[in-house]
TrEMBL record:
<dbReference type="Pfam" id="PF10025">
    <property type="entry name" value="DUF2267"/>
</dbReference>
<protein>
    <submittedName>
        <fullName>DUF2267 domain-containing protein</fullName>
    </submittedName>
</protein>
<dbReference type="InterPro" id="IPR038282">
    <property type="entry name" value="DUF2267_sf"/>
</dbReference>
<dbReference type="InterPro" id="IPR018727">
    <property type="entry name" value="DUF2267"/>
</dbReference>
């Protein structure tokens, strides 16, 4: 399906590449689940970062991924104070649909892997440095 607008068609191709990568990384059943995982993890990550870092990360994302990332963002509510994996996982879980086939932490690990692959690793590391160590590594 083509929109006839080159920039939009390219954006659709990019989001499909991202969703396919997440689908494969997490061994999900469909692209909708990949979208749900991407959205939940991006929102939890965004909500935990300081506003200036949120904007820096957003600038690195493809247009459609950026739209997902910023959806519903409230500047005044960030950053959250989550310091522990369990709190971050609970944030991700609140964003995932009921009966999601993976744990929130499993989804977060997979999306982090795709972010690492798709974004400039040096820039991603700088962004992640703004998180407490447990949330950077997602290890207990």
């Amino acid at each position: 399906m083509s929109t006839g607008v080159t920039a939009l068609d390219h954006s659709v191709q990019e989001i499909n590449v991202w969703l396919k990568a997440i689908d494969e990384q997490l061994a999900l059943e469909n692209r909708h689940q990949a979208y749900s995982a991407l959205r939940a993890v991006l929102h939890a990550l965004r909500d935990r970062l300081p506003p200036e870092v949120v904007v820096k990360l957003g600038a690195q994302l493809p247009i459609m991924v950026r739209g997902i990332y910023y959806e519903g963002w409230r500047l005044a509510a960030t950053p959250t104070k989550e310091r522990h994996i369990e709190e971050f996982a609970a944030h991700v879980a609140r964003e995932l649909p009921p009966q999601f086939p993976l744990t929130a932490l499993g989804a977060a690990r997979g999306v982090y892997e795709v972010l690492w692959e798709k974004l400039d690793p040096g820039e991603f590391e700088k962004l992640m440095a703004h998180l407490p160590a447990p949330l950077r590594n997602l290890q207990g």
